[in-house]
Write a structure and sequence with these properties.
Strand order of the largest sheet: 1-2
Number of domains: 2
CATH superfamily of the largest domain: Rhodopsin 7-helix transmembrane proteins
Largest sheet: 2 strands, antiparallel
Shape: globular
Number of helices: 14
Distance between the termini: 118 Å
Number of strands: 2
Low-confidence stretches: 1-11, 333-339, 351-372
CATH class of the largest domain: Mainly Alpha
Mean pLDDT: 75
CATH architecture of the largest domain: Up-down Bundle
Strand content: under 5%
Structural class: mainly alpha
Order of helices and strands: EHEHHHHHHHHHHHHH
Radius of gyration: 28 Å
Protein backbone atom coordinates (compact mmCIF):
# COMPACT_ATOMS: atom_id res chain seq x y z
CA UNK A 1 0.00 0.00 0.00
CA UNK A 2 1.14 3.57 -0.73
CA UNK A 3 -0.47 4.97 2.37
CA UNK A 4 -1.49 3.70 5.75
CA UNK A 5 -3.91 4.67 8.46
CA UNK A 6 -2.76 6.73 11.37
CA UNK A 7 -1.01 5.02 14.20
CA UNK A 8 -1.13 7.69 16.90
CA UNK A 9 2.00 6.35 18.59
CA UNK A 10 3.93 7.20 15.40
CA UNK A 11 2.84 10.84 15.42
CA UNK A 12 4.30 13.37 17.87
CA UNK A 13 1.76 15.32 19.95
CA UNK A 14 0.36 18.28 18.06
CA UNK A 15 0.49 16.89 14.52
CA UNK A 16 -3.17 17.63 13.98
CA UNK A 17 -3.00 17.68 10.18
CA UNK A 18 -2.69 13.88 10.00
CA UNK A 19 -5.36 13.46 12.66
CA UNK A 20 -7.67 15.87 10.82
CA UNK A 21 -7.22 14.11 7.48
CA UNK A 22 -7.39 10.67 9.09
CA UNK A 23 -4.38 9.38 7.18
CA UNK A 24 -0.62 9.66 7.03
CA UNK A 25 1.00 9.15 3.66
CA UNK A 26 3.92 6.76 3.44
CA UNK A 27 5.63 6.37 0.09
CA UNK A 28 3.02 8.38 -1.88
CA UNK A 29 2.37 7.50 -5.49
CA UNK A 30 3.66 9.46 -8.46
CA UNK A 31 0.25 11.17 -8.92
CA UNK A 32 0.22 12.51 -5.37
CA UNK A 33 3.83 13.61 -5.61
CA UNK A 34 3.16 15.43 -8.88
CA UNK A 35 0.02 17.13 -7.50
CA UNK A 36 1.72 18.33 -4.30
CA UNK A 37 4.85 19.48 -6.16
CA UNK A 38 2.63 21.41 -8.58
CA UNK A 39 0.86 23.16 -5.67
CA UNK A 40 4.18 23.92 -3.99
CA UNK A 41 5.47 25.48 -7.23
CA UNK A 42 2.32 27.60 -7.55
CA UNK A 43 2.76 28.99 -4.03
CA UNK A 44 6.48 29.67 -4.49
CA UNK A 45 5.78 31.57 -7.72
CA UNK A 46 2.77 33.54 -6.48
CA UNK A 47 3.66 34.48 -2.90
CA UNK A 48 6.08 37.29 -3.91
CA UNK A 49 3.40 38.81 -6.16
CA UNK A 50 0.76 38.43 -3.43
CA UNK A 51 2.90 40.35 -0.95
CA UNK A 52 4.11 42.95 -3.46
CA UNK A 53 0.73 43.78 -5.02
CA UNK A 54 -1.07 44.10 -1.70
CA UNK A 55 1.75 46.23 -0.34
CA UNK A 56 1.42 48.44 -3.43
CA UNK A 57 -2.31 48.84 -2.76
CA UNK A 58 -1.69 49.94 0.81
CA UNK A 59 1.15 52.32 -0.08
CA UNK A 60 -0.78 53.78 -3.04
CA UNK A 61 -3.83 54.60 -0.93
CA UNK A 62 -1.65 55.99 1.85
CA UNK A 63 0.46 58.24 -0.39
CA UNK A 64 -2.10 59.21 -3.06
CA UNK A 65 -4.66 61.81 -2.05
CA UNK A 66 -6.85 61.08 -5.08
CA UNK A 67 -7.26 57.47 -3.95
CA UNK A 68 -7.63 58.32 -0.28
CA UNK A 69 -10.35 60.84 -1.06
CA UNK A 70 -12.72 57.92 -1.77
CA UNK A 71 -13.54 55.99 1.40
CA UNK A 72 -14.12 52.78 -0.58
CA UNK A 73 -10.43 52.82 -1.55
CA UNK A 74 -9.48 53.12 2.12
CA UNK A 75 -11.64 50.06 2.84
CA UNK A 76 -9.86 48.18 0.02
CA UNK A 77 -6.49 49.07 1.53
CA UNK A 78 -7.65 47.71 4.90
CA UNK A 79 -8.72 44.48 3.21
CA UNK A 80 -5.25 44.28 1.68
CA UNK A 81 -3.75 44.00 5.16
CA UNK A 82 -5.11 40.47 5.55
CA UNK A 83 -4.05 39.59 2.00
CA UNK A 84 -0.55 40.93 2.72
CA UNK A 85 -0.25 38.66 5.77
CA UNK A 86 -1.21 35.72 3.55
CA UNK A 87 1.65 36.47 1.16
CA UNK A 88 4.21 37.14 3.89
CA UNK A 89 3.33 34.47 6.46
CA UNK A 90 0.61 31.97 5.59
CA UNK A 91 1.66 30.94 2.07
CA UNK A 92 5.29 30.25 3.09
CA UNK A 93 4.16 28.32 6.19
CA UNK A 94 1.63 26.28 4.22
CA UNK A 95 4.29 25.52 1.60
CA UNK A 96 6.57 24.15 4.33
CA UNK A 97 3.67 22.02 5.65
CA UNK A 98 3.11 20.54 2.17
CA UNK A 99 6.82 19.80 1.77
CA UNK A 100 6.96 18.09 5.16
CA UNK A 101 3.89 16.02 4.32
CA UNK A 102 5.40 15.02 0.99
CA UNK A 103 8.63 13.95 2.71
CA UNK A 104 6.70 12.35 5.62
CA UNK A 105 8.49 14.48 8.22
CA UNK A 106 6.83 14.65 11.65
CA UNK A 107 9.22 16.56 13.90
CA UNK A 108 7.91 18.55 16.83
CA UNK A 109 8.71 21.85 15.08
CA UNK A 110 6.79 20.90 11.95
CA UNK A 111 3.84 19.75 14.03
CA UNK A 112 3.83 23.10 15.83
CA UNK A 113 3.95 24.82 12.44
CA UNK A 114 0.85 22.87 11.41
CA UNK A 115 -1.05 24.27 14.40
CA UNK A 116 0.08 27.84 13.71
CA UNK A 117 -0.81 27.54 10.03
CA UNK A 118 -4.25 26.16 10.86
CA UNK A 119 -4.95 29.05 13.27
CA UNK A 120 -3.59 31.62 10.79
CA UNK A 121 -5.68 30.33 7.87
CA UNK A 122 -8.89 30.34 9.93
CA UNK A 123 -8.12 33.78 11.37
CA UNK A 124 -7.42 35.29 7.94
CA UNK A 125 -10.58 33.75 6.47
CA UNK A 126 -12.60 35.43 9.22
CA UNK A 127 -10.65 38.68 8.81
CA UNK A 128 -11.31 38.75 5.07
CA UNK A 129 -15.02 38.14 5.66
CA UNK A 130 -15.26 40.92 8.25
CA UNK A 131 -13.44 43.39 6.00
CA UNK A 132 -15.76 42.49 3.11
CA UNK A 133 -18.68 43.08 5.48
CA UNK A 134 -17.13 46.47 6.26
CA UNK A 135 -16.74 47.23 2.55
CA UNK A 136 -20.31 46.13 1.78
CA UNK A 137 -21.67 48.30 4.58
CA UNK A 138 -19.68 51.27 3.30
CA UNK A 139 -21.18 50.83 -0.18
CA UNK A 140 -24.67 50.47 1.30
CA UNK A 141 -24.38 53.77 3.17
CA UNK A 142 -22.84 55.54 0.15
CA UNK A 143 -25.70 54.59 -2.19
CA UNK A 144 -28.67 54.27 0.17
CA UNK A 145 -27.90 57.19 2.51
CA UNK A 146 -25.59 59.54 0.56
CA UNK A 147 -26.22 62.60 2.73
CA UNK A 148 -25.48 60.81 6.02
CA UNK A 149 -22.56 58.95 4.45
CA UNK A 150 -20.30 62.01 4.48
CA UNK A 151 -20.59 62.43 8.25
CA UNK A 152 -20.88 58.76 9.28
CA UNK A 153 -18.06 57.23 7.23
CA UNK A 154 -14.68 58.78 7.97
CA UNK A 155 -11.14 57.50 7.57
CA UNK A 156 -10.59 57.27 11.34
CA UNK A 157 -13.79 55.28 11.83
CA UNK A 158 -12.80 52.90 9.06
CA UNK A 159 -9.45 52.32 10.79
CA UNK A 160 -11.19 51.65 14.12
CA UNK A 161 -13.62 49.28 12.41
CA UNK A 162 -10.72 47.40 10.82
CA UNK A 163 -9.00 47.05 14.20
CA UNK A 164 -12.23 45.69 15.72
CA UNK A 165 -12.54 43.25 12.81
CA UNK A 166 -9.06 41.90 13.48
CA UNK A 167 -9.79 41.66 17.20
CA UNK A 168 -13.00 39.73 16.52
CA UNK A 169 -11.24 37.38 14.10
CA UNK A 170 -8.51 36.59 16.64
CA UNK A 171 -11.05 36.12 19.45
CA UNK A 172 -13.00 33.58 17.41
CA UNK A 173 -9.89 31.38 17.19
CA UNK A 174 -9.54 30.96 20.97
CA UNK A 175 -11.71 27.79 21.13
CA UNK A 176 -9.73 26.34 18.21
CA UNK A 177 -6.43 27.06 19.95
CA UNK A 178 -7.70 25.37 23.10
CA UNK A 179 -8.85 22.33 21.14
CA UNK A 180 -12.55 22.94 21.81
CA UNK A 181 -13.79 21.92 18.38
CA UNK A 182 -17.34 21.33 19.67
CA UNK A 183 -17.45 25.04 20.59
CA UNK A 184 -15.43 26.45 17.68
CA UNK A 185 -17.31 24.81 14.80
CA UNK A 186 -20.87 26.03 15.60
CA UNK A 187 -19.71 29.53 16.60
CA UNK A 188 -17.57 29.90 13.48
CA UNK A 189 -20.31 28.60 11.20
CA UNK A 190 -22.86 31.01 12.71
CA UNK A 191 -20.40 33.89 12.30
CA UNK A 192 -19.78 33.08 8.63
CA UNK A 193 -23.51 32.69 7.97
CA UNK A 194 -24.23 36.10 9.51
CA UNK A 195 -21.45 37.72 7.45
CA UNK A 196 -22.73 36.22 4.21
CA UNK A 197 -26.33 37.17 5.04
CA UNK A 198 -25.32 40.78 5.74
CA UNK A 199 -23.32 41.03 2.50
CA UNK A 200 -26.22 39.61 0.49
CA UNK A 201 -28.61 42.08 2.14
CA UNK A 202 -26.34 45.05 1.37
CA UNK A 203 -25.77 44.05 -2.25
CA UNK A 204 -29.46 43.43 -2.92
CA UNK A 205 -30.35 46.83 -1.46
CA UNK A 206 -27.58 48.61 -3.35
CA UNK A 207 -28.55 46.90 -6.60
CA UNK A 208 -32.17 48.00 -6.25
CA UNK A 209 -31.13 51.53 -5.36
CA UNK A 210 -28.78 51.64 -8.33
CA UNK A 211 -31.56 50.57 -10.69
CA UNK A 212 -33.83 53.25 -9.24
CA UNK A 213 -31.17 55.93 -9.73
CA UNK A 214 -30.64 54.84 -13.34
CA UNK A 215 -34.35 55.26 -14.02
CA UNK A 216 -34.32 58.72 -12.45
CA UNK A 217 -31.30 59.78 -14.48
CA UNK A 218 -32.94 58.68 -17.71
CA UNK A 219 -36.25 60.39 -16.88
CA UNK A 220 -35.00 63.63 -15.31
CA UNK A 221 -32.50 66.32 -16.09
CA UNK A 222 -29.73 66.22 -13.46
CA UNK A 223 -26.37 67.93 -13.17
CA UNK A 224 -23.25 66.46 -14.69
CA UNK A 225 -21.69 66.24 -11.22
CA UNK A 226 -24.57 64.06 -9.99
CA UNK A 227 -24.17 61.76 -12.99
CA UNK A 228 -20.43 61.40 -12.39
CA UNK A 229 -20.97 60.66 -8.69
CA UNK A 230 -23.53 57.99 -9.57
CA UNK A 231 -21.14 56.39 -12.05
CA UNK A 232 -18.40 56.28 -9.39
CA UNK A 233 -20.74 54.68 -6.86
CA UNK A 234 -21.96 52.18 -9.43
CA UNK A 235 -18.41 51.22 -10.39
CA UNK A 236 -17.42 50.78 -6.73
CA UNK A 237 -20.49 48.60 -6.17
CA UNK A 238 -19.59 46.38 -9.13
CA UNK A 239 -16.05 46.05 -7.79
CA UNK A 240 -17.31 44.97 -4.37
CA UNK A 241 -19.77 42.51 -5.91
CA UNK A 242 -17.01 40.92 -8.01
CA UNK A 243 -14.77 40.57 -4.96
CA UNK A 244 -17.53 38.89 -2.94
CA UNK A 245 -18.26 36.44 -5.77
CA UNK A 246 -14.57 35.61 -6.18
CA UNK A 247 -14.21 35.10 -2.43
CA UNK A 248 -17.15 32.70 -2.37
CA UNK A 249 -15.79 30.78 -5.36
CA UNK A 250 -12.37 30.47 -3.70
CA UNK A 251 -13.77 29.30 -0.35
CA UNK A 252 -16.36 26.82 -1.67
CA UNK A 253 -13.65 24.15 -2.34
CA UNK A 254 -12.40 24.58 1.25
CA UNK A 255 -15.92 24.03 2.58
CA UNK A 256 -16.34 20.94 0.41
CA UNK A 257 -13.00 19.56 1.56
CA UNK A 258 -14.08 19.94 5.18
CA UNK A 259 -17.24 17.96 4.44
CA UNK A 260 -15.22 15.22 2.77
CA UNK A 261 -12.61 15.17 5.53
CA UNK A 262 -15.22 14.81 8.27
CA UNK A 263 -17.84 12.59 6.63
CA UNK A 264 -16.40 10.76 3.62
CA UNK A 265 -12.72 10.28 4.37
CA UNK A 266 -13.31 6.61 5.21
CA UNK A 267 -14.75 6.06 1.73
CA UNK A 268 -11.96 7.84 -0.15
CA UNK A 269 -8.39 6.75 -0.64
CA UNK A 270 -5.81 8.54 1.55
CA UNK A 271 -4.13 10.04 -1.50
CA UNK A 272 -7.43 11.52 -2.75
CA UNK A 273 -8.03 13.10 0.66
CA UNK A 274 -4.61 14.75 0.58
CA UNK A 275 -5.02 16.09 -2.94
CA UNK A 276 -8.50 17.51 -2.20
CA UNK A 277 -7.40 19.15 1.06
CA UNK A 278 -4.18 20.76 -0.20
CA UNK A 279 -5.85 21.92 -3.44
CA UNK A 280 -8.78 23.50 -1.57
CA UNK A 281 -6.56 25.39 0.88
CA UNK A 282 -4.34 26.56 -2.00
CA UNK A 283 -7.30 27.98 -3.92
CA UNK A 284 -8.50 29.86 -0.84
CA UNK A 285 -5.04 31.37 -0.31
CA UNK A 286 -4.77 32.44 -3.97
CA UNK A 287 -7.75 34.73 -3.35
CA UNK A 288 -5.27 37.13 -1.74
CA UNK A 289 -3.48 37.44 -5.09
CA UNK A 290 -6.68 37.79 -7.11
CA UNK A 291 -7.98 40.78 -5.08
CA UNK A 292 -5.26 43.32 -6.06
CA UNK A 293 -5.44 42.07 -9.65
CA UNK A 294 -9.16 42.92 -9.61
CA UNK A 295 -8.34 46.44 -8.36
CA UNK A 296 -5.87 46.93 -11.20
CA UNK A 297 -8.22 45.64 -13.89
CA UNK A 298 -11.33 47.47 -12.72
CA UNK A 299 -9.87 50.80 -11.52
CA UNK A 300 -7.57 52.92 -13.66
CA UNK A 301 -6.60 55.12 -10.69
CA UNK A 302 -4.94 52.13 -9.03
CA UNK A 303 -3.03 51.29 -12.22
CA UNK A 304 -1.73 54.84 -12.51
CA UNK A 305 -0.81 54.87 -8.81
CA UNK A 306 1.08 51.58 -9.21
CA UNK A 307 3.02 52.99 -12.16
CA UNK A 308 3.83 56.12 -10.14
CA UNK A 309 5.21 54.03 -7.29
CA UNK A 310 7.13 51.57 -9.44
CA UNK A 311 8.63 54.21 -11.74
CA UNK A 312 9.08 56.74 -8.93
CA UNK A 313 7.10 59.38 -10.80
CA UNK A 314 4.83 60.42 -7.97
CA UNK A 315 5.21 64.10 -8.88
CA UNK A 316 4.77 63.50 -12.62
CA UNK A 317 1.20 62.26 -12.83
CA UNK A 318 0.88 62.90 -16.57
CA UNK A 319 3.91 60.69 -17.29
CA UNK A 320 2.42 57.91 -15.19
CA UNK A 321 -0.85 58.13 -17.12
CA UNK A 322 0.98 57.90 -20.44
CA UNK A 323 2.97 54.87 -19.21
CA UNK A 324 -0.25 53.24 -18.02
CA UNK A 325 -1.83 53.72 -21.44
CA UNK A 326 1.16 52.24 -23.25
CA UNK A 327 1.58 49.27 -20.91
CA UNK A 328 -2.00 48.30 -20.19
CA UNK A 329 -3.64 49.65 -23.36
CA UNK A 330 -6.72 50.56 -21.34
CA UNK A 331 -9.64 51.11 -23.67
CA UNK A 332 -11.13 53.92 -21.65
CA UNK A 333 -7.79 55.71 -21.53
CA UNK A 334 -7.31 55.43 -25.30
CA UNK A 335 -10.80 56.74 -25.89
CA UNK A 336 -10.12 59.61 -23.51
CA UNK A 337 -6.89 60.53 -25.32
CA UNK A 338 -8.59 60.32 -28.72
CA UNK A 339 -11.38 62.52 -27.39
CA UNK A 340 -8.83 65.08 -26.21
CA UNK A 341 -7.13 65.08 -29.63
CA UNK A 342 -10.46 65.53 -31.39
CA UNK A 343 -11.37 68.36 -29.02
CA UNK A 344 -8.01 70.06 -29.62
CA UNK A 345 -8.51 69.65 -33.38
CA UNK A 346 -11.96 71.23 -33.16
CA UNK A 347 -10.61 74.11 -31.09
CA UNK A 348 -7.80 74.71 -33.58
CA UNK A 349 -10.31 74.58 -36.44
CA UNK A 350 -12.50 77.14 -34.68
CA UNK A 351 -9.51 79.42 -34.15
CA UNK A 352 -8.58 79.19 -37.84
CA UNK A 353 -12.18 79.84 -38.88
CA UNK A 354 -12.38 82.92 -36.64
CA UNK A 355 -9.12 84.17 -38.12
CA UNK A 356 -10.44 83.71 -41.65
CA UNK A 357 -13.70 85.45 -40.76
CA UNK A 358 -11.74 88.31 -39.21
CA UNK A 359 -9.63 88.69 -42.31
CA UNK A 360 -12.71 88.57 -44.53
CA UNK A 361 -14.33 91.30 -42.49
CA UNK A 362 -11.19 93.40 -42.75
CA UNK A 363 -11.09 93.02 -46.53
CA UNK A 364 -14.73 94.05 -46.79
CA UNK A 365 -14.05 97.18 -44.77
CA UNK A 366 -11.16 98.11 -47.03
CA UNK A 367 -13.25 97.67 -50.13
CA UNK A 368 -16.03 99.76 -48.66
CA UNK A 369 -13.55 102.47 -47.72
CA UNK A 370 -12.13 102.53 -51.28
CA UNK A 371 -15.57 102.69 -52.76
CA UNK A 372 -16.43 105.69 -50.59
Amino acid sequence: MNASRIIHKMIPPGCELFIYLGVRLQQPSFVVQAAIIFLISIHILTLPFTAALNALVMIAVKSNRRLRAHKSNVALALLSTSDLVVGLVVQPAFTVVMISSLLDQTTAGLCALQIVTKLAVNCLVDASLTHLVLLSGERYLAVKHPFSYVTIVTESRLLVSSALAWLLSVTLQIPLALGKMNIFVPINNIFKALCIAFMVFCHVKVYRETRRHEEQLSAQQVTQEAREQFQRDKKAFKLTAIMVMVLVMCYIPLLISRIFALSSRGKLSPETVYIIFFSAVSVSLLNSLINPVIYSVRMRQFRVAFVELICRTVHIAQAAEEIEVRVFRAANAVIRLEGRQEQEGLEQGNVKQESVNHNDNGDDNVLRYDED
